[in-house]
Amino acid sequence: MPKIISLAIAVALGVVAIANGIFMLVAPENWYFAVPGVTTTGPFNQHFVRDIGLIFVFIGAAFFLGVARADLRIVFWAAPSLWLAGHALFHFWEVAVGICSASVIPRDFPAVTLPAILGLSITAWAMTEKCSTRVLGAKGSQAIGKL
User: Fold this and answer.
1) CA–CA gap between residue 73 and residue 145 (Å, rounded)
2) Of the residues 5, 64, 85, 92, which has the fewest C-beta atoms closer than 10 A?
3) Is 2 helix (H, G, I), strand (E, B) or coil?
4) DSSP 30-49
5) C-alpha span between 48 and 126 (Å, rounded)
6) Do 55 and 21 meet the contact criterion of CB atoms below 8 Å apart?
7) How far apart are CA 78 and CA 97, in angstroms?
8) CB 17 within 8 A of CB 57
């Protein structure tokens, strides 16, 4: 995956996560009724919605920090990607144990599963990029040392 695409995905994930988090913090009841399927998960709880909103703000900030700090990119992208993946797996678990019907999987895919897949993908790219840089850097150092 080209670097520019990975960075663009990280920026998009950051924007969406921060926008969602701010919506959850500023208007938790409006968020609760606006997002498809949320009302079927239990009664509105302002405190809970705001807690998760704060998590989404941190997730978005981490993706932005990973764009800005290449030296810390893996950590800044891995942490939110693991949370997003856990969240997506939890949605699948709810289907597996009968809490939700299988119809929620395609409904939730764009907002739950896709961000996890994208986050894990760019984290894998960052890991590969870092390994490539180390290998090339080491070979370059060896070549210079032989001069």
Assistant:
1) 30
2) 5
3) coil
4) HHHHHSTTGGGGSS--HHHH
5) 33
6) yes
7) 28
8) yes
Query: Which structure tokens are listed for 10?
Result: 């990280």
CB of 62 closer than 8 Å to CB of 80: yes
With a pLDDT cut of 90, the percent of the chain lying above it is 86
Sign, CA dihedral 125-127-133-136, equals negative
pLDDT digits (tens, 9 = 90+) for 19-71: 999 999 999 999 999 999 999 989 999 999 999 999 999 999 999 999 999 99
Cβ contact 95:104 at 8 Å: yes
Contact 39, 100 (CB under 8 A): no
How many C-beta atoms lie closer than 10 Å to residue 50's C-beta? 16
| Coil, helix or strand at residue 140 | helix
Q: Which residues contact 43 (CB under 8 A, 6 or more apart)?
A: none
Burial class (CB in 10 A: 0-12, 13-18, 19+), 130: middle
Confidence label for 132 from pLDDT (cuts 50, 70 and 90): confident
